[in-house]
Amino acid sequence: MLHVDVYSKHHCPLCDHGVEMMKELQKEIPFELSVIDIYEDDELLLKYQVMIPVVAVAEEEIDFGQLSKEKIRKRLLQIIG
Fold first, then answer.
1. What single Pfam family name could you report for this chain, choosing any that match (predicted)?
2. pLDDT value, residue 6
3. Do residues 61 and 47 touch, judged by C-beta distance below 8 A?
4. At CB < 8 A and 24+ separation, what contacts does 22-30 make?
5. How far is residue 19 CA from its own chain's centroid?
6. Which residues contact 53 (CB under 8 A, 6 or more apart)?
7. Phi-psi region for residue 7, left (φ > 0), alpha (ψ -120 to 50) or beta?
8. Distance set, CA 61 to CA 4, 11, 72 (Å)
9. Element at 74 (helix H, strand E)
10. Residues 3, 34: contact at Cβ < 8 Å?
11. Is the dihedral of CA 70, 75, 80, 81 positive or negative?
């Protein structure tokens, strides 16, 4: 099954909205969702601190910041073929 990561942090309304949007997409497209707090990993904090939320599949960052549900949906559908 497809696995999607959302890089996020606590007390981030934009991140909370992104996670909710991904849960809505799960109703249409089957995938496992992990929400990863960038403050638990120094490398992730350095990489994503000004980009969050970030939606990624494997090593591909699909979208970040103001997330686009349509952009993410389109890319997930391309990935699952």
1. Glrx-like
2. 98
3. no
4. 22/55, 22/72, 24/69, 25/69, 25/72, 25/73, 25/76, 28/73, 29/2, 29/73, 29/76, 29/77, 29/80, 30/1, 30/2
5. 7
6. 6, 7, 8, 12, 14, 15, 18, 19, 64, 65, 67
7. beta
8. 10, 22, 10
9. helix 69-80
10. yes
11. positive
CATH of segment(s) 3-80 = 3.40.30.10
pLDDT, tens digit, 9 for 90 and up, residues 3-61: 999 999 999 999 999 999 999 999 999 999 999 999 999 999 999 999 999 999 998 99
What are the extents of the domains in the chain? 3-80
**Dist CA 6 CA 34 (whole Å):** 6
Residues 6 or more apart whose Cβ sits within 8 Å of residue 56: 4, 5, 6, 7, 62
The token pair at 28 is 């249409």
